[in-house]
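Figure 6 in text form: structure in, sequence out.
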């Protein structure tokens, strides 16, 4: 993206305390045991990952928030009346409609799961969305319930590649609901014109037309 190229050039001349300056200055030992800095290409490619991973997902979170709360007007009303419940509601939306329903891995060595060997060289797909509806962890899993006893969901992945943006994403989700419910405690969706899309990484609403009702003065 040319915007990032221009920004890198500008940041080289104008260092700051931001993440781009850190990318430019960081020194590390790479997989060939060489101590070095990140190349320009590496910085650009990571900026693109970060921009995609940070935007596509959080706007899907907002779409799902609008859809799921529309479908559960009692819980929407409760949230409008008691915004301190919003962080719990965001966790439940993340569990119920994960924006990235699956992740995949390349298998580098033979591993055994449930008595079966997965040979090196395979690809495996993990259905995060299914794990989020596992009744052993979430009783009555198909019920959307902002008061459910909280158990960790898989929406931000698991292990070494767990989403590094999860705190920011949760915060964005909370601010969205706070600001939305403050102004428009109720909305109707035009599902005839709504369009759901699923790319190789995310699932959500491409368009979700809504008629909002402003809060009574
Ligand atoms: C609701 C919002 C989000 C969801 C559902 C989400 C989900 C995920 C998931 C499931 C992974 C793991 C992928 C894997 O294991 O293969 C991941 C990785 C990642 N996420 Fe997020 N994410 C969200 C928001 C963000 C934000 C706001 C940022 C940054 C601004 C971000 C940056 C990243 C990056 C850089 C990775 C790759 C980490 C790695 O491979 O080590 N994400 N995300």
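Output sequence:
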């Amino acid at each position: 993206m040319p915007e990032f190229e221009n920004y890198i050039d500008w940041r080289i001349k104008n260092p700051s305390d931001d993440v781009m300056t850190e990318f430019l200055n960081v020194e590390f030992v790479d997989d060939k045991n060489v101590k070095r800095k990140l190349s320009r290409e590496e910085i650009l490619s990571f900026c693109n990952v970060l921009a995609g991973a940070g935007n596509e997902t959080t706007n899907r979170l907002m779409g799902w928030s609008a859809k799921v709360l529309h479908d559960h007007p009692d819980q929407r009303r409760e949230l409008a009346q008691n915004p301190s419940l919003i962080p719990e509601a965001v966790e439940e939306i993340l569990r119920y409609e994960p924006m990235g329903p699956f992740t995949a891995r390349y298998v580098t060595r033979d591993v055994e799961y449930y008595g079966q060997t997965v040979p090196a060289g395979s690809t495996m797909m993990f259905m995060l969305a299914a794990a989020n509806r596992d009744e052993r962890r979430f009783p009555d899993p198909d019920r959307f319930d902002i008061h459910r006893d909280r158990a960790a969901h898989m929406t931000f992945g698991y292990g070494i590649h767990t989403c590094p943006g999860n705190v920011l994403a949760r915060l964005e989700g909370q601010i969205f609901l706070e600001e939305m419910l403050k102004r428009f405690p109720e909305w109707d969706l035009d599902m005839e014109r709504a369009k759901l899309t699923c790319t190789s990484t995310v699932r959500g609403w491409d368009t979700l037309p809504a008629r909002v009702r402003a809060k009574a003065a």
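Caption detail: The domain at 39-213 is CATH 1.10.630.10 (Cytochrome p450).
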